[in-house]
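Researcher: Sequence recovery benchmark, item below. Answer with residues only.
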């Protein structure tokens, strides 16, 4: 496989890849919601028809129709009739936090921690292999990607982190690891990196990315893996703490300054 991938196009491919499992409307709904919130599917973008969407996802047409109906009720999609009609994304990012907080509340702590274990195994191994297999040109390209990414806002930081992790996975030269990274990004990325709404966590994320690149340059696989796993575990702990706040107080995990009113000792 190529040593680098187009993360944006790869993530889009993962969005419309066949679903595992029974193909319930909830799975279709969650995948499309995450894609919209992450910005993979942009405001105003036309979605495939019900029949085409069902075919791509490997589900029944009625399943795709049910998922689109819920998206319409959630004001994420608008359907227009006529020759130039279809279902169009109608999301500008304003309600992203509340949508993801609802999803976080719906997850059990066991599910959140299991996500961390699974993702740590995939991303950690990819980083370790990348340190051994990436060329100098590959690492230079990764540095250029970081230089072009402005992590000043939460949405941009989340997309940048997703792109960075996909690029590192591609440098592992393992097609299976890349596919699994894509699947996890498509289904859980918007939730996993929810903590990047905090400025300090965005700064810390950028620092870890730079340290990871340095580990790749040094061909230090153990260091690259350790940095990756630690970052994911910190993110999972943030989610657990944020979930506790939501359950205990019903307050948003953001304040006017964009910080989390949980604990000043929360990892960043």
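Model:
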């Amino acid at each position: 496989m190529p040593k680098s991938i187009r993360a944006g196009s790869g993530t889009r491919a993962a969005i419309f890849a066949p679903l595992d499992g029974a193909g319930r409307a909830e799975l279709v709904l969650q995948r499309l919601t995450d894609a919209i919130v992450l910005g993979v599917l942009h405001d105003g973008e036309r979605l495939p028809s019900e029949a085409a969407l069902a075919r791509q996802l490997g589900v029944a047409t009625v399943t795709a129709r049910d998922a689109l109906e819920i998206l319409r009720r959630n004001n994420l999609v608008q359907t227009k009739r006529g020759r130039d009609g279809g279902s169009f994304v109608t999301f500008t990012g304003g309600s992203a936090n509340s949508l993801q907080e609802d999803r976080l509340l719906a997850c059990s702590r066991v599910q959140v921690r299991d996500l961390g274990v699974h993702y740590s195994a995939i991303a950690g191994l990819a980083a370790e292999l990348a340190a051994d297999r990436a060329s100098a040109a590959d690492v230079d390209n990764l540095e250029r990607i970081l230089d072009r990414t402005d992590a000043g806002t939460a949405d941009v930081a989340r997309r940048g982190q997703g792109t960075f992790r996909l690029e590192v996975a591609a440098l592992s030269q393992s097609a299976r690891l890349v596919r699994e990274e894509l699947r996890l990004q498509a289904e859980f990325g918007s939730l996993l990196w929810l903590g990047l709404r905090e400025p300090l966590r965005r700064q810390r994320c950028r620092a870890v990315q730079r340290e990871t690149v340095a580990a790749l340059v040094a061909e230090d696989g153990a260091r690259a893996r350790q940095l990756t796993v630690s970052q994911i575990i910190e993110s999972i702990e943030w989610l657990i703490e944020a979930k506790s706040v939501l359950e205990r107080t019903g307050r948003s995990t953001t304040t006017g300054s964009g910080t989390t009113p949980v604990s000043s000792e929360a990892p960043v």
